[in-house]
Amino acid sequence: MTDPYYVKGIPEDVASDHFVKASALGGFVKACAVRSTGIVRDAMRYHNTSPSVTAALGRFMTGSLLISENMKNETDTQTTIIKCSGPIGGMTCVCDSSFNCRAYPVNSVIEGDEQINVKGAVGQGTLTVVRDIGLREPYGGQVELKTGGIGEDFTYYLMASEQTPSIVALGVLIEDGTVRHAGGMMVQLMPGYGDKETDYLEKRIQGFPDFTYFLDEGFTPAQILDLFLGDPDIKYLEGAPAAFRCTCSKEKMSSGLITLGSAELLSMAEDKKGIDTECRFCNSKYHFTPEELSKLAVEAR
Question: Among 28, 226, 295, 296, which lies 20 to 30 A Cα-Cα from 219?
Fold first, then answer.
């Protein structure tokens, strides 16, 4: 018997991080869901984040992945940035078209952070989305944060900047200092929708449990979409693994150093110990000797 929740492209182990897309209600609704537990665990490990920062960064990465779902080309990227007044200071996330992402918070630790409070950690600020999909120039938009809860902020962005009525539900469940589950879903109304579809979704979201509740009960992203949409004719379109993946390298660090200019690099080369550089996304360190800095200075001329 065919598995009704089989989606082409998802990993064999459905308990691993993955992304699922579907359509429902006669094609007037597009929906996607992602399990991001491993992604958030990796982010927590790389940045040694305190609980509220872990929850905020986890929601932010999950939401960023969801709104990146329409990128197609291998070189497409999406950068999401939150600048805020709260003690987290801000967050940056970069996603590619294969549902890989990398992210970092400005401040990894909030002092006295024992009770998870995402809105308190974020505060007021802006959400910016920039997509580079091979056009002449990257494009995007920016909105004020509505609540700092992240999910509501992505929902507002999609409506205000992209004119797409949406529901974005995000969750990170932390127990005993570890990420037990993380994930989320995005449900959008497509052109031609009417009051029937709008009213239906508004009723479905009322009282719908947190996404991580279903993950904790053993449901997959595909099953959670089915539970929310309640449409026997739901169509699963495609799936893909999702992961935290940094693309840093010494070569890329070299390119960044060259932008400092020849004089600055020659000044650095005077230090016999050389210099160490660090990737903001994964904290990998790259050492440059005085000889390497001198060669970069020549290239920078």
Answer: 28
Yes or no: say if 118 and 171 are a contact pair by the CB < 8 Å rule: no
Classify 210 as helix, strand or coil: coil
Which pLDDT score is estimated for 6? 86
CATH architecture of 250-299: Alpha-Beta Complex (3.90)
Q: Give yes or no for a contact between 19 and 7, defined as CB atoms under 8 angstroms apart.
A: no
CA 86, CA 103: separation in Å to the nearest integer? 18
Give φ, ψ of 184 to 5 degrees. 180, 175
Buried b (16+ CB within 10 A) or exposed e, 82-108: bbbebbbbbbbbbbbbebbbbbbbebb
What tens digit of pLDDT does each residue of 109-142 get? Answer: 999 988 899 999 999 999 999 999 888 888 889 9
Look at residue 2 in the predicted model and tell me its pLDDT: 67
Mean pLDDT of 226-246: 96
Q: Are 91 and 105 in contact (CB under 8 A)?
A: yes
Please say whether the structural domain 18-244 has been given the CATH code 3.55.30.10.
Answer: yes
Q: Which amino acid is at 208?
A: F
Q: Are 266 and 297 in contact (CB under 8 A)?
A: yes
Which one, of 272, 82, 47, lies nearest residue 179 by Cα? 47
**What pLDDT, on the 0 to 100 scale, is given for residue 49?**
97
Closest by CA to 256, choosing from 235, 229, 270, 275, is 275
Residue type, 33: A
**pTM (predicted TM-score):** 0.94
Domains 18-244 and 250-299 share a fold: no
Parse the chain into domains and list their residue ranges.
18-244, 250-299
Report phi then psi at 142, rounded to 5: -145, 140
**Contact by Cβ (8 Å): 76, 218:** no
Contact 55, 172 (CB under 8 A): yes
